[in-house]
Amino acid sequence: MKRCSSIILDGIRNFHPSYFAMVMATGIVSIAFEAMAFTGIARALFALNLVFYLILCTILTIRIVLFLPDVLTDLRTLRRAVPFLTFVVGTNTIGMQLVTFHQATELAMWLWLVALIGWVVCLYFILLGFILMRGKPLHEIVNGATLLIVVSTVSVSLLGVRLLEAAGSHAGYAYFMAGSVWVLAFVFYLMIVTLLIYRLFFQRFEPAEWDAPYWICMGATAIITLGGAEFVLRMPGLSAWQGIWLVILWITVFAWMIGTMWIPYLLVMDILKFTRVNIADSAPLWIKTFPWARLAFGGQCHVYDPPCWSRVFPMGMYTASTLSLVKVTSFGSLAIISQYWGWFALLIWSLTLIGMLRTVFAAINLVTISTR
């Protein structure tokens, strides 16, 4: 029993903050399927996401209470601090689901406040981390996960706008603040993605270095698109806002176009990674047929790790953002693209979930064997 408790406590001590990306991914796929009018799937994913969120919050709370020095050490380490932003985005995603499915505005407001505090704390430590690493070239510091700065910032603005609309508020200053945060996120994106483009296309970059968080190059633009479309739909209908409305709309369309252009590159890099890396000879036929099957199946070929959820979130977000963009533009044909992409996102979500469950069951089995 003592050994079992020790193993569990070690697991909590080393809890990977990236697991909240699972909440992000499940939540946005749920919201996307609600927008696609598949309410049964959407609500089932929402119920499952509540379970995920409560379990992960419980583990994180225990870790903070019992292992606060370890948490602070993670926050002071830039590479470990950035994934904590998945908690911010995951919390705001749960808030969006509560508003979407149950109009639970008050509870969503509390979650938004928790996420806002978490966002401020994480950005403080991340900025401190960048300052401490100022002697190192920026393009070597940033990676796909760094774009969580953008995603978390937009998520604060996005849920804020939904709460203002749900509460029936038409206070111009509140919408101005939400819009300012959204614009700030877009500026962050341009700064970070410039460094990433230099790293990916102008430096030596091997398929083995490729990881799921690079999908956030597209996912960040997708959530910017969703945030902009929601703002355009819900902003006060005042004459003074007409010029702002048009600017936000054009930035939204531009962000969607950037995200769309990223998709072919992301798919190709995934295929190269799954068909070449950690494969002795030629990739088996089942991998060549559908490379993402490695997320769930295979022995030595199994490639699941917690950051894999960072691939699913951008896929689901692209679906949700495109459907929102359709509402504010005349690009009705984009809805057809979203339908197909949404099912692809659900398939990748399912494979990633199977991969996670395999990892969890293997860990449980290891604990059981070690305590005999």
UniProtKB/TrEMBL annotation:
<feature type="transmembrane region" description="Helical">
    <location>
        <begin position="176"/>
        <end position="201"/>
    </location>
</feature>
<protein>
    <submittedName>
        <fullName>C4-dicarboxylate transporter</fullName>
    </submittedName>
</protein>
<feature type="transmembrane region" description="Helical">
    <location>
        <begin position="244"/>
        <end position="268"/>
    </location>
</feature>
<feature type="transmembrane region" description="Helical">
    <location>
        <begin position="343"/>
        <end position="367"/>
    </location>
</feature>
<feature type="transmembrane region" description="Helical">
    <location>
        <begin position="107"/>
        <end position="133"/>
    </location>
</feature>
<dbReference type="InterPro" id="IPR051629">
    <property type="entry name" value="Sulfite_efflux_TDT"/>
</dbReference>
<keyword id="KW-1003">Cell membrane</keyword>
<feature type="transmembrane region" description="Helical">
    <location>
        <begin position="81"/>
        <end position="101"/>
    </location>
</feature>
<keyword id="KW-1133">Transmembrane helix</keyword>
<keyword id="KW-0813">Transport</keyword>
<dbReference type="InterPro" id="IPR004695">
    <property type="entry name" value="SLAC1/Mae1/Ssu1/TehA"/>
</dbReference>
<dbReference type="InterPro" id="IPR038665">
    <property type="entry name" value="Voltage-dep_anion_channel_sf"/>
</dbReference>
<feature type="transmembrane region" description="Helical">
    <location>
        <begin position="213"/>
        <end position="232"/>
    </location>
</feature>
<dbReference type="GO" id="GO:0005886">
    <property type="term" value="C:plasma membrane"/>
</dbReference>
<feature type="transmembrane region" description="Helical">
    <location>
        <begin position="50"/>
        <end position="69"/>
    </location>
</feature>
<dbReference type="GO" id="GO:0000319">
    <property type="term" value="F:sulfite transmembrane transporter activity"/>
</dbReference>
<feature type="transmembrane region" description="Helical">
    <location>
        <begin position="20"/>
        <end position="44"/>
    </location>
</feature>
<feature type="transmembrane region" description="Helical">
    <location>
        <begin position="145"/>
        <end position="164"/>
    </location>
</feature>
<keyword id="KW-0812">Transmembrane</keyword>
<comment type="similarity">
    <text>Belongs to the tellurite-resistance/dicarboxylate transporter (TDT) family.</text>
</comment>
<keyword id="KW-0472">Membrane</keyword>
<feature type="transmembrane region" description="Helical">
    <location>
        <begin position="317"/>
        <end position="337"/>
    </location>
</feature>
<dbReference type="Pfam" id="PF03595">
    <property type="entry name" value="SLAC1"/>
</dbReference>
